[in-house]
Amino acid sequence: MNSQDVTIGILDSFILVVYFFGLMIIAAYQSRKMKSQDDYFLAGRTMSKWPIALSMFVALFSTNSFLGVTGWVNRPEGTVWIGLQNLGIILVVPIVIVLYPKIFFRLNVTTAYEYLEKRFDYRVRLFAALCFIGARVMWMSSMIYAASLVIATMLGWGSLEGGSGQAILLVGLLGIAFAMMGGMHSVIWTDVVQFFVIFGGVVVMMFTAIEKVGGPVKAMEIAVHAGKWEPPIFFDVNQELTIVSGLCLGVIGYLSSAGSDQVLFQTYLTARSLDEAKKSLWRNGLFLKPLSLLFPLLGLCLYTYYVVHPEHAALMRIPDDALPVFVTQVMPVGIKGLLIAGIMSAVLTSLGSGLAALSACVQVDFVKRWRQNRFSNHSSIFLARTLTLIWGLVVVSGGFLVSNLGKDNNIIQILNMVMYPFAGVLLGIFLLGLLTRRANGIGVLIGASLGFFITLTISLVRRLLQSVELLDVSSPFLIPHLIPHWMAPLGNISTFYYGFLGATATFCLGFFLSLFFPEPPFEKIDGLSHIKSRKIRKIHSKM
Fold this sequence. Notes:
Blueprint: H1 10-31, H2 37-42, H3 49-73, H4 84-99, H5 101-107, H6 113-119, H7 122-155, H8 160-213, H9 216-225, H10 243-260, H11 262-268, H12 274-288, H13 294-308, H14 310-313, H15 322-329, H16 335-370, H17 377-403, H18 411-418, H19 420-435, H20 441-471, H21 475-482, H22 498-514, H23 522-525, H24 534-542
Helix pairs in contact: 1-8, 1-16, 3-7, 3-8, 3-11, 3-12, 3-13, 3-16, 4-10, 4-12, 6-7, 7-8, 7-15, 7-16, 7-17, 7-18, 7-19, 8-13, 8-16, 8-17, 9-13, 10-11, 10-19, 11-16, 16-17, 19-20, 19-22, 20-21, 20-22
């Protein structure tokens, strides 16, 4: 893409500057409220249901879902049925509300992993915290890469490699600055603003694309002819998107995010009460999450536009460029700047919540757990900001690593490959704690380690097979030097199942191996599991 193809003018640039300046003012204002660790990480536990619900939606939304979903539909084989993952999220909301808030709120914890030490031991807490760090670093690295596509397109930074690299650095540094300023107060309130800007922009883009195609009837004809409405098969473990894999991705993703991922966990723990937290989860899952079904429809509108206007389609380096090219080339001046600002600020607030969660995890689960002397409130906030800076630099480095996967994989696939080997295992650990009474620390630790090894092996085999294809060398000669022949079929397993495989392997192996070690004393798990032993039930019945 050449610089002359880019149409970001003075007015759009002015809107971008004003928008980002406004975000920084919000962050600076909210920073005045920070007097303690709880203020920085949990907004003082004073938030109400609707701001929390909107913040949870935007925190998990990010450019991974925005660009990933629209990019998927613009792949040659992509369809609108990628929205099945959102249906899976909606279906699992009641289970999330039953599983998580009641126990976690009663414990009055800052991180989810404090629960694991109470339920098992510190070794499991440490392992889970490390899994979370791996999952969240990979999630934010993927998000920065996705955002770099927008920035590189907007500024005309040429090739996929060089342009994305410059943009990754720019987005990362802006995200670090925002995260260090205002803590969770600023993240939540700016998320509220982003929600309305983004969805207003989605509606405007859909109408614009349909109007320029020639109307809804023409757009529907193009989509039907291209097979974009054709449903996938019900189940095939080797096909990326099927009915089962799409629903599975949403179910496992939300179960993991809501209970074992510090980002969403930390957001709903900002609620002023358990009742407010439950209401925020209901509103996020049943009222806000269905709006995500607009994203595949937007991708469909963009696809029909590019069919009618191939000159703009030629500007896309990869299918994930569908949205940024449309915004920069088609949207009118003014609205274009507002849309780009909305997309980029959503990235910054998602980075803010993610970096705050990483900082909370390290400070609470590592530093304070090992340090005997208590920190002052001022020292806690200073440490939190320092950790935010360090993790921000790690995430930027991860963005460069993830960008190497962008040529061969959609953003959704990248996320499945680099994040779910951690997130699935993490979910399995929490389910062992919440849904069993027999699981013990050593059994869970060994089972989780094996579950992670299994999922990571599958992901690495897939990447090796892709490398073989890139080298244009026939696999019968090269694969024996890389992986055994019997392992090659593992590389064909759909990435949509990686989270499910990690969670299932961890849960089954962890429970089975726990049978070889002593059962936890009933006093230890009382109130920490939904499954109570007969002895506990007998004691409670006498009270």
